[in-house]
Amino acid sequence: xxxxxxxxxxxxxxxxxxxxxxxxxxxxxxxxxxxxxxxxxxxxxxxxxxxxxxxxxxxxxxxxxxxxxxxxxxxxxxxxxxxxxxxxxxxxxxxxxxxxxxxxxxxxxxxxxxxxxxxxxxxxxxxxxxxxxxxxxxxxxxxxxxxxxxxxxxxxxxxxxxxxxxxxxxxxxxxxxxxxxxxxxxxxxxxxxxxxxxxxxxxxxxxxxxxxxxxxxxxxxxxxxxxxxxxxxxxxxxxxxxxxxxxxxxxxxxxxxxxxxxxxxxxxxxxxxxxxxxxxxxxxxxxxxxxxxxxxxxxxxxxxxxxxxxxxxxxxxxxxxxxxxxxxxxxxxxxxxxxxxxxx
Length: 344
What we know:
The chain is an alpha/beta fold. Helix content is 36%, strand content 14%. The chain is built from 10 helices and 10 strands. It is globular. The protein starts with a strand and ends with a helix.
C-alpha cells in the first residue's frame, strides 16, 4: 500500500491548546506523524510518496470562499493587530447573538469562523492545511487510477472542519475533499466511514443534503464527548440527503466487541449502497490509552478492524484523523492498514 505524505505538516507546530481551563501543549502535534512514518517503514507497508499539487479547485468546491480567504490571512492579520500569543477565538455569534454579519476586525472574524476554541491558529497553519489537502487529493487520484488501497498521511486532520469553520484541530476537510475528487473522477457513489473517536461533524455538515456521498460515523456519544452538538442517531440527512447519514454514538467505556456491532451495521449499509469507493476517516483515538477519549480498543483490535473494512471488497482510501496516545499511534494505524491488506 502506498503512503502519501508531505513534510510540510511540520509548519503546523502550535504551542498552545486550551484544555481543562489551561493553556497546554497541543495533543495534536508533529510527533504523531513521525511515529506513524516509523511504523509504516518498519512494516514495509510500501512506497512513501510526496503529494502532487492538485490546486485548489476541489478545495473551493467544498469550502466557503470567504472562509478560505480568512484562513489564508488570519495569522498575518493577528500579528498585524499586535497580539503576542497564538490566535484563539474568544467570542462567537451565539444563540443570543445570531448575527450573520462578518466583522472586519480579526478578533471578530476569528470567532465567526471558529467552532471550538481549543484550536489556535499559528504561523504556518494555512500552508500545512493546504499540504494535507493535497495529500488527501493525491491519495484519491491514486484510487481513481486503480489502486485498491492508499494511505493519505494527513496532518493537520480534517473531519471537524465544516464548509466554513475550523476547530477540533481541523482546518480543511481532507476526507470530504477526497470524496469530492472521487465523484469528479467517475465514482457515482462514494461512502465515507469515520472511525475516529470524535464525531465527524464537519463531514456530516458538508454532505448532509447530498445523496451521492454516504456518511457513517462511529463515535463517542456527543452527550459526553466533543463536539457535543452534532452526531446523534436521529441525524440522518435532509432533503435529497435524507437517509444518507448514519451516526452510531457509543457510550463511555465501549469495548471493541460493542464497537464492532456498530461497524458491522455500517458495513452492511455501505455494501447495500453499492459504493464505488470508500474513504475511511482513520482516527485511532478509540485506543484504550488515548488521553482525550473514553473507548477501550486495544492495539490488536485495529488489525481486525482493517480486515473488516477490507471485507467490503471496495477500493479504500485511508485518511489520517486523530489519535493522541502518541507512542502507540503508529502501531495502531499500521495495524489497520496491514489488516486491510491481508484481505487482498
